[in-house]
Amino acid sequence: MITISLCMIVKNEENSIARCLTSIHDLMDEIIIVDTGSVDQTKEIASQFTDKIYDYKWVDNFSAARNYSFELATKQYTMWLDADDVVDEQNRKLLKQLKTSLNPSINSVLMNYLVNRDKFDYPSFIIKRNRLVKSRCKFKWSGAVHEYLEVNGPVLHSNINIHHLKNRTDNTKRNLLIYEKQLEKGEAFSPRDLFYYANELCRHKNFHKAIFYYTLFLNNKEGWKEDKIISCGKLADCYHHLGEEKKEIATLYKSFDYDNPRADLCCRLGNLYMEKNQMNKAIYWYEYASKLSWDKSCMGFYHVPSWTWLPHLKLSVCYYKMGDFTKAYKHNEIALKYSPHDPGIINNQNLLKMKIKKL
User: Fold this and answer.
1) Backbone angles phi, psi at 155, to 5 degrees
2) Model pTM greater than 0.85?
3) In whole angstroms, what is the distance from residue 352 CA to residue 348 CA?
4) CB 286 within 8 A of CB 270
5) N or C: which end of the chain has fewer CB within 10 A?
6) pLDDT by residue (tens digit) across 12-39?
């Protein structure tokens, strides 16, 4: 059986850290908490689970803090979580099994990160993250903001899920300001920095400047394919907010240059054409999305609705507007299989049954 050090960096997480640690503390052989300046009860709560709590002076660099926490790990493998992450009972069992069965040749274990839960408690996005790494490999975190763990060697794609249950909305400009301080210092941005800086600009509605940096990133020959695809969607968002429809559509099509079409972007095209009442074009893109299959080895963002129920629900609406209630019912039934408790889809089912009876 392997031993695991859990390493966390925290600040003012009194409302979530107990939930996180309660869900996993007994599966860990060591818990290391690096506090970057809490002024609430975070450290006091954490002390109920571990005595390895360290203060760290914040230097506007998430990777520096995470690397410090990893340096303190003494066990065979190192795992990381954020304070608003939770491991539920089913995934506790899987993690316990992993501890007893992991091949010691494995350098990193990928786990699914489930984020942005909807009103039915289903995740909207699933992302694979390098969550558990061999300590003696001394893998390092990179990037001041939106940091990532650089790994190499044998990697295991596990089916363990980590649930991200964010308690609060982050409306601060913390990340944006970190990037802008770097620019003021004349620090060169990597392609990844360009991408995430553009994301921060877009999130804070500075659309013109975001367009500039997304374009810089997309024109750079380097950069991860998945980030390029996301950039196309985000850039299209910017054009949408600015009312530049032709550029919005062109940018969505540009995403196809980097890989096979993605269901979420196909649905975006369907939405645009449905809004213009061009139902045949809308149906084409929703149908296309509905037939795509997600590559489970892909490290990109898996937008769950777009790859499951959403294109069928949209097809149901399109066919309803065109008076084809039989096809509308068929696609609504498929959507219902994916989301069986959605009252809107259930109401559609009843409405369409009545329409078909009247035919």
Assistant:
1) -125, 135
2) yes
3) 6
4) yes
5) C
6) 999 999 999 999 999 999 999 999 999 9
